[in-house]
Design brief:
54% helix; 85 residues; 3 helices; rod-shaped
């Protein structure tokens, strides 16, 4: 099932504003459960977790920053417009 452009935009906004802060808190909590590693190892863990969260959402984020591909161009008549005489 392909999501429409509008649905993908809304879903990506929801993921970034709600899901990402929750994921950051969960990653921070997970790392705090263990003895604190060196700074470089901790940085590597956070970078890896930062990349891993985005992989399942690639399809949602793809093309969201572009213009709506289904929107009519400014000079083009929309199909719902009645013909002008």
């Amino acid at each position: 099932m392909a999501l429409s452009y509008k649905t993908r935009r809304r879903l990506s906004l929801l993921i970034l504003l709600v899901g990402l802060p929750i994921y950051i808190g969960a990653a921070w909590f997970l790392v705090s459960l263990f003895e604190r590693p060196s700074v470089f190892v901790e940085l590597a863990i956070y970078v890896a977790l930062g990349v891993i969260w985005a992989l399942p959402f690639r399809a949602v984020f793809r093309g969201v920053g572009q213009a709506d591909p289904d929107a009519p161009t400014p000079g083009q008549d929309r199909p719902s417009d009645p013909p002008q005489e």
